[in-house]
From TrEMBL, chain A:
SUPFAM superfamilies: MetI-like, WD40 repeat-like. PANTHER family: PHOSPHATE TRANSPORT SYSTEM PERMEASE, PHOSPHATE TRANSPORT SYSTEM PERMEASE PROTEIN. It is a multi-pass membrane protein. It comes from Alishewanella jeotgali KCTC 22429. GO terms for cellular component: plasma membrane. This is Binding-protein-dependent transporters inner membrane component. The keyword Aminoacyl-tRNA synthetase does not apply.
TrEMBL record, chain B:
InterPro entries: PBP_domain, Phosphate_ABC_transporter. The keyword Signal applies. Residues 34-297 form the PBP domain. The keyword Glycosyltransferase does not apply. This is Phosphate binding protein. Residues 1-25 form the signal peptide. PANTHER family: PERIPLASMIC PHOSPHATE BINDING COMPONENT OF PHOSPHATE ABC TRANSPORTER (PTHR30570), PHOSPHATE-BINDING PROTEIN PSTS (PTHR30570:SF6). Keywords: Signal. It comes from Alishewanella jeotgali KCTC 22429. Pfam families: PBP_like_2.
Automatic annotation (TrEMBL), chain C:
Keywords: Cell membrane, Membrane, Transmembrane, Transmembrane helix, Transport. Residues 203-435 form the ABC transmembrane type-1 domain. The chain crosses the membrane at residues 12-34, 199-228, 248-269, 290-309, 417-438. Belongs to the binding-protein-dependent transport system permease family. CysTW subfamily. It comes from Alishewanella jeotgali KCTC 22429. The lineage of its organism: Bacteria, Pseudomonadati, Pseudomonadota, Gammaproteobacteria, Alteromonadales. Gene3D superfamilies: MetI-like. Coiled coil: none annotated. NCBIfam families: 3a0107s02c (TIGR00974). This is Phosphate transport system permease protein PstA. GO terms for molecular function: phosphate transmembrane transporter activity. PROSITE patterns: ABC_TM1 (PS50928). It is a multi-pass membrane protein.
């Protein structure tokens, strides 16, 4: 086939044309080389570009806070002062002289605090009963010097003369009665707290102490985001944030000064992303993923723990379904099936990989979810009956007539097993129904609930089954490849030494393909971690932190898909979602690299054994 | 809240009757006769609310019938996308099922130097759905909070975990309440969070499904489920619960007359946001589209989706503002 | 070779059983898709009955969609008469002016006067959708219908899509109608918020975006494959490139969508607009999601598939062929171009087709970059520039997600999703069949030539 366009030119006597030709050929060669090399490097550029782009969107999240030196303002700015709350007459308790009076947003409760920190919570609708709660905001030996609402008026920050800062929540108790409860201290300031200013629309605050030090805090973190000398005169005055929280104003008798603050994402830090945080209105610290709301006063809650756990949970259950199926099926097709059937079956299973996951997700949500809820017991029965079937067959077969004994290994046993499986499936359905009626009051699922196991219709089992089916072909095809690449010399040798087929599998094929199977598992895992549509459609997207098989989950991918279109560009939420993308990238990168290393090692092994 | 003031002012002016019909009669607020506009061409793209999607499609069909050359593209992935799309300039109509939040407004203003214009185009209601075999008929707002909220900021209701706590007996005593809702991108989610949870947090067990139909479908498939979604979902196998604004009030079904009278607590205004510079008139395509949407004909189409027309006094003031 | 006592081993049976289980699942899945997808357009018998319950006494006309047995326990829990198990039927009533139309469950016990009258007709109208007419009278410009709730309705002939007295139809007529409905489904644009009508824009969008992707990915992917296998020496850099290719294949597709939105749409598209379409700003042209960005994102997504396939194809070609070429004095480019590539063509084509079939089913990343639920105007037109790269498109995969989860008329939309899924599956299946055929064809050619 190389005859008609041989690269060697036909006999040509003229030297000059030959030379021209040679140089043209060299140039072409060079061009070709450049083109192809640039295409090759463009792949690495693309990968780097993705990584750097994602990184550049995330980095501002972790930028430290910066504050300018204070500037004196020539013209004083008007600052919004909190309206003084008018006390109802009978609330004036004789022994109580309130210094601070605060009212909660629904105006029903009043909080009065006296000089030494004694506080009284007053229910205005039942004011004649006096305080519904009495407590001390300090340890009584020091003075209470500041008490402010954080934005949204759900929690309070108190400061005292010893430099102690504390956060308090108004939480409803069992009877629906609000109570003030102590949440946490912030790291202690060196001198007495002079004044506290709350940020607008988010839960940060600035503190000025009497030694002239300024600190910036965010409610989720006990350590200050920034602290340093304020460089203002120490006459008592007040701090105020201007709208946008980029300017902090200090006003006292001698005038006004302002700081310019660059503090875009105070709510995000490594700690809030990965550790439990006690959010406003919650009974204890928890991992919460609940992003913004239309009203800006609501704290965005960005814990990556539920999402990461959800992703791992889904991937774990999917692998639990996919790996046994894939490995056993690969073993069977590779070692027991005769040739034409072998490639047919492996092709068929690999075709399953082309099933778009959106279809699988849809089927899982619309068809499988209610079916699973109804026939959960039948499924359990089915899996219980399978081992019986296996042992039954292996017991029964040697006792059958000889003509039938030849069946296994010919491929015909597949048809038989298909029929048997269908029969067992029907039996399991019947059994499940009967058991449900007789033992579980008609519904296994509600019985589970009464046993304290929370069963949700959109659960990890459903995802495991659906995603297991989607991941299985990939794991299968890698396993199948590995097993069929095992050098024939080894199996033949073992056979010549008198090993039975099963011994060959056990002693030769399986040990040799272990790294390959591991690689397949890694690849499957990375695929399961990155899978989006099935999880999005088949789960309830509940950001919870447990591994309960019967509860739902929310994965990194699903969060990205639903929330990214809504997130305002450059907001904390948007950047956290990019961090989620990087996290996914890192997960799959690790899994793939591991798989790659394993496969390389395997190849070297085979070459050594073969050579 | 400003919107509801506008609505109520409008309603008082017209004598608090079933808005549009009564208001139109004998009032100078009726729409001006539309000039015979030349057929429009070009592209008009809309990005935003999922709730308004079907309505946009219906309006689109009637509108495009008149202007066959016009290419009107509609993308509906959630209200928040409207704000992003308008300020990024990727769409010129932004249907939203809520008002923009200050951050979104600020973003738009930074980009263009003026605020976007919100045009109310419909009244919508959220309905509470349960399975058709559920004997419960009504629920109070406080009970809803108990089901959905983590922290009772509205009424401090203790958590409601099973149907017994909602007053059902027999086998229902042990059945847990499975709560379904929309995902965070939707205006439905935000509105519900404001009205029922007072901006509190959802319990993390509340299932968030990425579509209005998915919520109702899930409820129809699960006997112990409850879910909130737009009222326009037509599906067999579920029923509405009547809602009591407070425990003492009578229960109200999400019907058109209750939305207009303000008796139904989960009714809201739906908007189309526009990028209109203060000194410039709207581009022809957008102007004509809005003129159509706000016309009697456009508003009458709302009934097919179970929505309610905007009170005509509000309509009139919008027309004046937009110089339609 | 004898296989002593193979069959007695439980592991053998377990692995065989597993394979059979997978086969069973494949069969179940295919059966489910075919049964639900193909059943959609078969003309059903129309029924009419009277329904009396709790003060309600109505005449109902429509199609029975499904039946459900309700157990005594469930009846009791619902607070209904629980003396015996009951049956209920889901009926599709179509549009009714009284607003009582749509899908509804009816208790079988409360139904009387059940009949299938021959004059009962299914009428499909452009605006209102499906109507079930008890009686039909021709008027000057259309028909007057008598509906089950007693309303009279006039329908103009030019608004009429279908007039179907199903109960009178014979088998062949039904079959013809069935095929006609399928054709309409494939060749028209959607109506009623995607819950009726056809899916032509989605088919065109899918095919077009995937073709464009193939055009983009083929040269780069193949050349990168050649680079890795033929040019690059086994250096650390090459190992890094190979690793990153394999990793690129494993990156979750949704991350590509994020990158596509942020980089392609906002950055690249934004600059194109500033350079070439400045006059139209702030109305964006390429700065908003569209066909081009969909294809580019897909190309990035499927790049590794093509590279890996090319590399594999090249590694199958014996080294002797290359050496022979060099021995005859050919340059490297000439050996590649004239000797190696023709031999490796089947592998590259297969890789490309696999990439295409993977792209055709992709949804998650495309939500960000230009696939929308409704964009009936096709991105191809008869006038310049023929192909509108900036337009948003519909795709089959996104339709499944969107119609399946977001349609406001879920009862009507759901069966359609199965039909759409079937179309998508057939499209992907056909592409793969093509890939297999090509592979076999070229393999035979190679065998013959060698």
């Amino acid at each position: 086939m190389t005859r008609q366009n041989s690269p060697i030119p036909a006999q040509d006597n003229r030297l000059t044309t030959n030379k021209q030709r040679a140089s043209r050929r060299r140039w072409l060669d060079r061009l070709w080389y450049l083109l192809i090399t640039s295409a090759g490097s463009s792949v690495i550029v693309a990968l780097l570009a993705i990584f750097f782009y994602l990184g550049s969107e995330v980095l501002p999240l972790f930028k430290p806070v910066s504050i300018s030196t204070p500037q004196a303002l020539a013209e004083p700015l008007p600052v919004a002062t909190t309206p003084r709350v008018v006390l109802p007459d009978h609330a004036l308790l004789p022994e109580f002289e309130p210094v601070f009076v605060l009212s909660e947003p629904q105006q029903r409760y009043l909080l009065l605090a006296a000089r030494h920190g004694e506080a009284c919570l007053l229910d205005r609708t039942r004011a004649e009963q006096g305080c519904v709660q009495r407590l001390s905001l300090t340890d009584r030996t020091v003075d209470l010097t500041a008490l402010v609402w954080l934005a949204g008026q759900r929690s309070l920050i108190s400061g005292d003369s010893s430099g102690q800062l504390k956060q308090w929540f108004l939480l409803p108790d069992q009877q629906g009665q609000l109570r003030l409860s102590w949440v946490k201290p912030f790291s202690r300031r060196a001198a007495a707290i002079q004044t506290i200013a709350a940020e607008q629309g988010r839960s940060g605050f600035a503190v000025l102490d009497s030694a002239g030090n300024l600190s910036l805090f965010y409610a989720n973190l006990t350590k200050p985001l920034w602290q340093g000398p304020a460089a203002v005169d120490t006459q008592p005055g007040e701090l105020h944030f201007l709208p946008g929280n980029q300017r902090l104003l200090f006003s006292n008798a001698s005038g006004q000064q302002q700081w310019l603050i660059d503090n875009r994402h105070p709510e995000i830090s490594w700690r809030t992303l990965w550790q439990q945080v006690w959010y406003e209105g919650w009974q204890q610290p928890e991992y919460v993923w609940q992003t913004g709301s239309a009203s800006a006063a609501v704290q965005g809650k960005y814990s990556l723990v539920p999402l990461t756990l959800g992703t791992l949970k889904a991937a774990f259950y999917a692998m639990l379904v996919a790996v046994p199926l894939a490995v056993l099926a690969a073993l069977y097709t590779c070692c027991f099936l005769p040739e034409p059937l072998r490639s047919r079956l492996s092709q068929l299973i690999e075709l399953l990989a082309l099933f778009p996951t959106v279809i699988i997700g849809f089927l899982a949500a619309i068809w499988l979810a209610p079916a699973l809820e109804q026939h959960l017991l039948a499924l359990l029965c089915f899996f219980g009956l399978l081992p019986l079937l296996v042992f039954g067959l292996s017991w029964l077969w040697p006792r059958l007539p000889l003509s039938l004994q030849k069946l296994p290994g010919s491929g015909w046993e597949l048809l038989l097993l298909l029929a048997l499986l269908a029969a067992v499936g029907l039996l399991a359905l019947y059994l499940g129904h009967a058991l449900q009626l007789s033992l579980f009051d008609g519904s296994f699922r509600f019985w589970l609930n009464s046993q304290g196991i929370d069963y949700q219709q959109r659960n990890a089992l459903l995802v495991g089954l659906a995603m297991g089916l989607a991941v299985m072909p990939l794991v299968y095809s890698v396993c199948f490849d590995v097993m069929s690449q095992i050098p024939r010399s080894l199996t033949l040798g073992a056979s010549a030494l008198g090993a039975t087929p099963w011994q060959i599998i056990q002693r030769v094929i399986l040990p040799l393909s272990v790294p390959g199977i591991l690689a397949a598992v890694m690849l499957g895992l990375s695929r399961a971690i990155g899978e989006t549509m099935i999880i999005l459609m088949a789960t309830g997207n509940t950001p919870i932190t447990n591994f309960n098989l019967f509860e739902g989950l929310r994965s990194l991918t699903a969060a990205l898909t639903i929330e990214l279109p809504e997130a305002a560009v450059d907001s904390s939420h948007y950047r956290v979602l990019f961090l989620v993308a990087i996290l996914l990238f890192v997960f799959t990168f690790t899994a793939n690299t591991l798989a790659d290393l394993l496969r390389q090692r395997l190849r070297r092994n085979f070459q050594r054994l073969d050579g | 809240m400003a919107v509801f003031q506008i609505i109520s002012r409008g309603l008082i002016r017209c004598g608090l009757l079933l808005a549009s019909v009564a208001c139109l009669a004998g009032d100078d607020l009726s729409e001006p006769a539309a000039p015979a506009a030349a057929p429009l061409s070009g592209t008009l793209s809309s990005a935003g609310s999922d709730t308004l999607h079907n309505m946009m499609m219906i309006w689109r069909r009637h509108f495009v019938a008149r202007h066959p050359q016009l290419n009107l593209q509609i993308q509906s992935s959630g209200s928040a996308t409207a704000a992003v799309a308008l300020s990024e300039g990727t769409a010129s109509l932004g249907p939203m099922s809520r008002l923009m939040i200050p951050a979104e407004l600020a973003r738009f203003e930074r980009r263009f130097g003026y605020l976007p214009t919100a045009v109310p185009v419909a009244l919508d209601m959220l309905a509470i759905y349960v399975h058709q075999d559920n004997p419960l008929n009504s629920i109070s707002m406080a009970q809803l909070e108990g089901i959905y909220a983590k922290n009772g900021w509205c009424a401090a209701t203790p958590p409601i975990l099973n149907w017994q706590q909602l007053g059902l007996s027999g086998v229902w005593q042990q059945r847990p309440v499975v709560a379904y809702g929309r995902n965070q991108a939707s205006g439905t989610y935000t509105f519900f969070r404001q009205q029922v949870l007072c901006d509190g947090d959802f319990r993390s067990q509340v299932q968030q499904l990425p579509g209005a139909a998915a919520v109702v479908r899930a409820v129809s498939q699960s006997i112990n489920a409850i879910g909130y979604s737009g009222v326009g979902q037509q599906i067999a196998g579920v029923k509405w619960l009547a809602v009591r604004p407070t425990t003492e009030d009578a229960a109200v079904l999400p019907l058109a007359e209750h939305a207009a009278s303000g008796a139904y607590p989960l009714a809201r205004m739906l908007y189309i946001y526009l990028n209109k510079a203060p000194d410039k008139a709207l581009p022809a395509a957008e102007r004509e589209f809005l003129r159509f949407v706000l016309s009697t004909e456009g508003q009458a189409l709302l009934a097919t989706e179970g929505m309610v027309p905007v009170p005509s006094s509000v309509l009139a003031s919008i027309r004046q503002e937009l110089e339609l | 070779m004898t296989k002593p006592r193979l069959h007695t081993n439980a592991w053998f049976w377990l692995s065989a059983l597993t394979s059979a289980l997978i086969l069973l699942l494949v069969l179940l899945l295919s059966w489910l898709m075919l049964q639900r997808g193909l059943g959609l357009f078969w003309p059903q018998d129309l029924v009419q009955f009277r329904y009396q319950q709790a003060g309600e006494n109505r005449l109902i006309a429509g199609e029975v969609i499904s039946r459900q047995q309700v157990s005594v326990a469930q009846l009791a829990a619902a607070g209904l008469d629980a003396s015996a198990p009951a049956e209920r039927i889901l009926v599709r009533q179509g549009y009714l002016p009284s607003g009582q139309g749509g899908y509804r469950w009816f208790w079988q016990a409360q139904i009387s006067e059940w009949q299938q009258p021959p004059q009962l007709t299914l009428v499909r109208e452009q605006q209102l959708g499906d109507l079930y007419a008890l009686q039909l009278a021709a008027t000057a410009d259309g028909y007057q219908l008598l509906l089950a709730d007693g309303h009279q309705l006039n329908v103009a002939a030019n608004q009429l899509l279908l007039l179907l007295p199903t109960n009178q139809l014979s088998w062949p007529a039904k079959l013809k109608l069935y095929l006609k409905q399928w054709w309409q489904f494939l060749s028209t644009e959607p109506r009623e918020a995607n819950s009726a009508g056809g899916i032509l824009p989605a088919i065109v969008g899918t095919v077009l975006s995937v073709l464009l992707m193939a055009l983009l990915v083929a040269p780069i992917g193949i050349m990168a494959g050649i680079y890795l296998h033929e040019y690059a020496r086994d250096s650390r850099l090459v190992r890094l490139v190979r690793l990153s290719v394999h990793n690129l294949a494993g990156v979750p597709s949704v991350v590509f969508g994020v990158f596509g939105l942020g980089f392609f749409v906002y950055v690249l598209g934004g600059s194109i607009d500033k350079l070439f379409y400045a006059g139209q700003l702030p109305q964006p042209t390429f700065g908003s999601p569209g066909l081009l960005w969909v294809s580019l994102t897909l190309a990035l997504l499927t790049l590794p598939v093509v590279i890996v396939a090319t590399e594999e194809g090249l590694s199958r070609i014996p080294q002797s062929l290359r050496l022979g070429g060099y021995a005859l004095g050919a340059t490297k480019a000439e050996v590649l171009y004239k000797l190696i590539l023709p031999q490796a063509r089947p592998a590259m084509l297969t890789g490309l087709i696999l990439a295409v079939s993977r792209a055709a089913g992709e949804v998650a990343p495309l939500i960000f970059v230009g696939v929308v639920k409704y964009a009936p105007v096709l991105p191809v037109s008869a006038s310049w520039p023929y192909l509108h790269l900036e337009q948003q498109i519909m795709t089959l995969g996104f339709q499944i997600y969107d119609v399946g989860l977001k349609s406001s008329n879920a009862d009507a939309a759901e069966p359609r999703v199965f039909a759409i899924a079937l179309v998508l599956l057939l499209l992907i299946g056909a592409l793969n069949l093509l890939a297999m055929r090509l592979r076999r064809h070229y393999r035979q050619l190679q065998q013959r030539s060698s």
